[in-house]
Description:
Radius of gyration: 19 Å
Number of helices: 12
Distance between the termini: 34 Å
Number of domains: 1
Amino acid sequence: xxxxxxxxxxxxxxxxxxxxxxxxxxxxxxxxxxxxxxxxxxxxxxxxxxxxxxxxxxxxxxxxxxxxxxxxxxxxxxxxxxxxxxxxxxxxxxxxxxxxxxxxxxxxxxxxxxxxxxxxxxxxxxxxxxxxxxxxxxxxxxxxxxxxxxxxxxxxxxxxxxxxxxxxxxxxxxxxxxxxxxxxxxxxxxxxxxxxxxxxxxxxxxxxxxxxxxxxxxxxxxxxxxxxxxxxxxxxxxxxxxxxxxxxxxxxxxxxxxxxxxxxxxxxxxxxxxxxxxxxxxxxxxxxxxxxxxxxxxxxxxxxxxxxxxxxx
Length: 313
C-alpha cells in the first residue's frame, strides 16, 4: 500500500488497539427460505465462492444459530434484516416469514451470550418499489411485534427502520410523516449526504452517522439472474464484461474500507453484507476463504479479545 493510499485509512496498529465504540451493523438476507436463486446461479456460472455451510435454507434453526455465532465472532452488533430481496416475497409477508421467527426466537434468548445482537428492519421490494399499503403493513408488523423488544435497535431515540430506494416512491414522504414513532433512514448504493450508502467505492466519503464497508463487489451474478428472470436467457460473457466490480484482493480491499470507515468514527459502520452472494459482498464463511473476513473484522474493529470465546468454540 503506498503512502497516498495509507493516508485515507486509520493506522492498522491503532485499529487493532483501539476498540470501535459505535455500532457495527451487517446486511442479512433470508430469501433462501423461499428461493435458491443464489445457489442455482453459483452452480450455473461456476461462481468463485461457495458457502461453507452448504446451500442452506434460511429458516433452518441450526443454520441461523450458527450464523449468529459467526456474527458474534466478527464483532457484529446489529443485524439489518432485508425484507425482501426476492421475487417470491414482499413487505406484507413479514408476519409469515419463517426465518424471521427463528431469528427473533434466538434474539429473545441471549441471556448467556457475552455479545448480544440487535435487530433492525430494512424494507425493500425486489426490483420494484413498495406500495403505500406494503410500507404500512411492514411498519405495523414491526411496531406491534418487534419495536418494543429489548433487542430492537434504537437510533435518535426511536426504533430505526431502513428504507431501500429502488427509485423514489411518491408515497414515501407521507409514510414517514404518518409513522413518526420510528426513525427512518433511506438507503441506496452509493448514497449521497442525505441518503445512507449500501455500498461505496474506496475511499468512502467520511461521515459521522454511517460508513459503508464491503469485502468487494461483483454485480455479475445478480445481473445474470435478473436478465434470465425477465427474458428467459442471459449472456454470461456480456454480463461479466459490464459488471460493476471491486476486487476483493484477498481481503486487502475489505481492510482498506474498514480502516477508512473507522477514520470517520461514525455512529454506525455498515458491512454489506453477511450473505449477499449474488452481489459478491458476503463475508459469511466460504469454502475458499474460511473465516478470513470474520477475523479481519474483529481484529480491525479492536474487538479481537472480546470475540475470543466465539473463535474457541
